């Protein structure tokens, strides 16, 4: 593992963290409930930016006392690049998301999303030159674009599937606080419910659902 720190007198701090690929120990940085992971992680306080050139992933594990009561743990991975300016995390290259959430009826909702890029916005802006991190740093919304595919599945306590949906669209934004989806552009939806023999398909130019 390698840690490099550069700082001119009264100048901005530059940090490089390099993981050990042979030992499968990537570089990591954790900011409250958000963790960024990649082989080489760089930070420049002068421009307030953290970035990873190459593949990596983000893990968001909400605090147990989160205001919206969500226990949804998300993992977003990319293959090309990540940029984080303290407020918005931009990921490019075969972005994939996995997440799961316990519903009020006790069922488990599993979600998988793929797209060419994604942008995730945080609730509070982080200034890397400050020692303190704002309280309650949570994901507000995630926007996916470039041939987005989404799959959802609900299963009960014994693992029996109750519903499954498949979406394909140009762009979708997901509000992490309410679960609302805003879909832009043409696409299609296929939904299968338990005890229903036929799937339901739909085409739309723009729609919003929850």
Descriptive overview:
The protein is mostly beta strands and 210 residues long. The protein is built from no helices and 15 strands. The chain has a 15-stranded antiparallel β-sheet that branches. The protein is elongated, with a radius of gyration of 19 Å. The termini are far apart. The C terminus is likely disordered.
Q: What is the CATH topology classification name?
A: lipopolysaccharide transport protein A fold
For the CA atoms, what is the radius of gyration?
19 Å
The chain-level mean pLDDT equals 83
The separation of the N and C termini measures 44 Å
User: Could you state the order of secondary-structure elements as H and E?
Assistant: EEEEEEEEEEEEEEE
Q: What spatial form do the alpha-carbon principal axes imply? A: elongated
Count of helical segments? Answer: 0
What's the number of extended β-strand segments? 15
- The level of helicity is under 10%
Q: Summarize the biggest pleated sheet.
A: 15 strands, antiparallel
What's the architecture in CATH terms? Sandwich
Strand content: over 45%
Structural class: mainly beta
Poorly predicted runs are 197-210
Number of domains: 1
CATH class: Mainly Beta
Summary tags:
mainly beta, 0% helix, 15-stranded antiparallel β-sheet, 210 residues, elongated, 63% strand, lipopolysaccharide transport protein A fold
């Amino acid at each position: 593992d390698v840690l490099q720190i550069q700082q001119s007198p009264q100048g901005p701090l530059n940090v490089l963290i390099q993981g050990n690929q042979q030992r499968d120990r990537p570089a990591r940085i954790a900011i409250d409930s958000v963790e960024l992971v990649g082989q080489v992680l760089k930070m420049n306080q002068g421009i307030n930016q953290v970035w990873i050139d190459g593949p990596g992933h983000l893990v968001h594990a909400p605090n147990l006392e989160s205001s919206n009561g969500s226990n949804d743990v998300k993992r977003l991975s990319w293959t090309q690049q990540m940029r984080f300016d303290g407020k918005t995390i931009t990921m490019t290259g075969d972005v994939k998301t996995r997440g799961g959430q316990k519903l009020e009826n006790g069922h488990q909702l599993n979600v998988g999303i793929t797209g060419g890029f994604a942008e995730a916005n945080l609730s509070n802006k982080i200034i890397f030159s400050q020692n303190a991190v704002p309280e309650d740093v949570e994901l507000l919304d995630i926007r996916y674009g470039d041939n987005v595919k989404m799959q959802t599945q609900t299963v009960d306590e014994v693992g029996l599937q109750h519903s499954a949906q498949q979406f394909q669209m140009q762009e979708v934004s997901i509000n992490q606080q309410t679960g609302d989806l805003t879909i832009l552009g043409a696409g299609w939806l296929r939904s299968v419910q338990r005890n229903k023999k036929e799937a339901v398909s739909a085409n739309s130019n723009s729609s919003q659902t929850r």
